[in-house]
């Protein structure tokens, strides 16, 4: 069930040094893994925390083999709670995800017309843009959302009789007509929006469902975004203004590739991640603040935003903006402090 991860998942270096602070905390996730995989409590203590001396990420080793990783992220907790919580808070209370005033800061300093995010549609700023596009009361968003869910549900026909299938067909038309009507009210803020996805076993995705509807299908209907495989980023003609990676860079087996693809396709990349020294056993790896020093060595220019966005943090987290172009970061700094 466990496998050796002797190379750093981010930079592939072999310079992993065992940390002298080994912690074992039982949280909801760990308890679920123990119960569902029938493990003894001591089993997970075999997993130790290491730090990469090249890029400074923390990594668990040994850790679960790929088959079990997929089981954990697609079955044991296949639903990405925070992703859906963010969506429900928005449609029910019109609350956007809590990133302090990050959205205001970024839209004030960067002219954003082409925007993309990676893997999770409701973890970043997509809902902020959506809110701006309609500027409606919360009842509008709730009704819109219900119709999207009903539409996608009505297209699920397995096991239904011919009679029921006919009813479903009529329902689909009714819900979709309403959705089209809502969409006529849109005042677009962005020219293009994309959600890029990978199929890493380390990520929820394939079973990230609410009321039998997958978050990606839901997002493509509601938020009018294009969903593409990560490799499609190379074919994008128009350079992106901003690419958002919200709690998803540490949930892929190819974080280096994801970050590089994003940096090549976009002028700016905003990254939000955990930097908890007590790397929990359900995570393969975690970033640290020192990771930014590594990026600097790689000529990736950064500015940390954690303390610029007025967010009260409940756990150690890091927000940073990065770019391959030094002048872009300098320009951002000039505008941000105005
Ligand atoms: Zn490394």
Brief descriptors of the model:
338 residues; alpha/beta; Rossmann fold; 7-stranded mixed sheet; 4-stranded antiparallel sheet; 11 helices
Helix count?
A: 11
The CATH class name of the largest domain reads Alpha Beta
Q: Could you tell me the strand content as a percent range?
A: 15-25%
Indicate the low-confidence ranges by residue numbers. Answer: none
Annotated CATH architecture of the largest domain = 3-Layer(aba) Sandwich
Mean pLDDT: 96
| Broad structural category | alpha/beta
Share of helix, binned: 25-40%
In what order do the strands lie side by side in the largest sheet? 10-7-6-11-12-15-14
Overall outline: globular
Main beta sheet strand tally, sense and closure: 7 strands, mixed
What ligands can be seen in this structure? zinc ion
Molecular structure report:
- This protein is of the alpha/beta class and 338 residues long.
- It has two domains: 2-135 and 187-336, Rossmann fold; 137-186.
- It is built from eleven helices and 15 strands.
- It has helices at 28-36, 66-76, 81-93, 102-109, 126-134, 138-154, 162-183, 215-222, 255-265, 291-297, 326-336; strands at 2-3, 16-18, 48-52, 58-61, 63-64, 114-118, 192-197, 209-210, 213-214, 226-229, 240-246, 266-274, 285-286, 301-304, 317-323.
- Strands 10-7-6-11-12-15-14 form a seven-stranded mixed beta sheet, with helices on both faces. The chain has a four-stranded antiparallel beta sheet with strand order 2-3-4-13, with no helix packed on it. A two-stranded antiparallel ribbon has the order 1-5.
- Helix 6 packs across helix 8 (215-222).
- The longest helix is centred in the middle third of the chain and has 22 residues, at 162-183.
- The chain is globular and about 60 Å long.
- The chain starts with a strand and ends with a helix.
- The mean pLDDT is 96.
- It binds zinc ion (ZN).
- Zinc ion is lined by residues 8, 10-11, 13, 52, 54-55, 57.
- Zinc ion (ZN) is lined by residues 8, 10-11, 13, 52, 54-55, 57.
């Amino acid at each position: 069930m466990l496998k050796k991860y002797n190379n750093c998942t981010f930079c592939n270096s072999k310079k992993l040094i065992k940390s002298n602070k080994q912690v074992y905390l039982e949280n909801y996730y760990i308890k679920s893994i123990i119960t569902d995989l029938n493990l003894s409590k001591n089993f997970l203590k075999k997993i130790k925390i290491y730090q990469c001396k090249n890029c400074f990420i923390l990594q668990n080793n040994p850790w679960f083999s790929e088959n079990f990783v997929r089981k954990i992220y697609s079955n044991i907790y296949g639903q990405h709670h925070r992703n859906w919580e963010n969506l429900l808070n928005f449609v029910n209370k019109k609350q956007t995800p809590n990133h302090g005033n990050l959205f205001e800061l970024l839209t004030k300093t960067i002219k954003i017309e082409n925007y993309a995010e990676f893997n999770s549609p409701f973890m970043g700023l997509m809902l902020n843009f959506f809110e701006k596009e309609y500027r409606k009361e919360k009842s509008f968003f709730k009704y819109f959302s219900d119709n999207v869910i009903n539409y996608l549900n009505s297209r699920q026909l397995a096991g239904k009789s011919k009679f029921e299938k006919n009813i479903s067909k009529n329902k689909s038309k009714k819900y979709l007509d309403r959705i089209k009507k809502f969409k006529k009210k849109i005042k677009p803020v962005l020219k293009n929006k994309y959600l890029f996805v990978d199929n890493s076993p380390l990520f929820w995705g394939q079973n990230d469902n609410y009321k039998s509807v997958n978050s990606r299908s839901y997002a493509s209907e509601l938020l009018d975004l294009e969903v593409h495989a990560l490799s499609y980023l190379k074919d994008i003609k128009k350079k992106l203004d901003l690419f958002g990676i919200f709690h998803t860079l540490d949930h892929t087996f190819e974080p280096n590739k994801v970050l590089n693809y994003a940096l090549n396709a976009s002028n700016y990349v905003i990254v939000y991640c955990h930097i908890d020294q007590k790397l929990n056993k359900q995570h393969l790896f975690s970033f640290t603040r020192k990771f930014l020093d590594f990026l600097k060595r790689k000529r990736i220019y950064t500015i940390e935003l954690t303390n610029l966005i007025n967010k009260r943090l409940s756990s150690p987290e890091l927000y940073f903006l990065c770019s391959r172009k030094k002048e872009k970061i300098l320009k951002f700094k000039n505008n941000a402090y105005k």
